[in-house]
Every structure is written in C-alpha cells, then in structure tokens.
Amino acid sequence: MLKPVVKVIEVPIDAPFAYRLFTSGIASWWPLDTRSISAHSVGKPAKTIEADPIPGGAIIEISADDTRYVWGNFADCAPPFSLAIDFHMGQPKEHNTLLAISFLQMEEHQTLVKLVHSGWDCFGPLAQMMREGYDRGWDEIFCNHYAQACQKGRFPESRAC
Fold it and tell me: 3-state DSSP call for residue 1?
C-alpha cells in the first residue's frame, strides 16, 4: 500500500471562504490550460469546470469541444470543515482514488488547508507512477494555483468562454 500524497498550506482567508473557493470556485483557479483532459486530448484548454459540492454531486470538465468529462463525485461534504471526493480525472471509475481536503480555521483570516490523496493501489503496476505524478501535480495545482487564488481573497475571473 502506497502512502497518500499530503499537501498542507496556510491561506489568509477564513475557512468558509477557502472551502467555497475550493469547491464552487474551482473553475477560477484550476490551471485548465495544462491540467485538463481537453489540454491532453485535443491540445486546447478546457472551457470550464462545473462542481456540485453536495454528496453525490459531480465535478465535470467542459472541454474545448464541449465534451463533458466527469472527474469524480463528492463523497462527503461538511462545509466549511472538510470534503471528500471519489476522484478519477481522465480514468475509468474503477480507478477512483480518494481526495480529502480539510479546512482548519487558525485565526480570523488564517486557515490551514490540508489535501490528502490516497487509494493508489487501484492502478496496479502503475500505482507508483500515478502517485508520483499526482504528487508533482498537486504542488502546481494546490500549492501554487489554489494558494494564489486564496492570497487574492476573492474569486478570480472565470476562465469560462
């Protein structure tokens, strides 16, 4: 069993806002130009991401050619404290991994956000490679793009066309 990928950042916003930005505001900070199915399959950034942050709700990429790709489903939502996602971006559902994010209010405008991505064994012989790829990917996506959006303290302009 491989260790989960764990990333922790401290952001200068309160936990409810950090939670909403991660869920409902995901299209405003996710790097769709490099980290989308559309970017890898047709060479163009995805148009947007739709997220329905309720248990069973989906995260859906709208690709450059309007194809809809389900990245996963919210397994649990406890706003503003935590969420869990059965995540399979670009993979068949049987390759679900678990993405768990927690939001711990430290001070009035300081929140510790922890991302834990586990369940790599579903990839069989490719498990180590997938884990290493996501470890690097979360550095860019979570520790850079999401953290920068939190620094701005507001929802950046949507990337939707």
Answer: coil
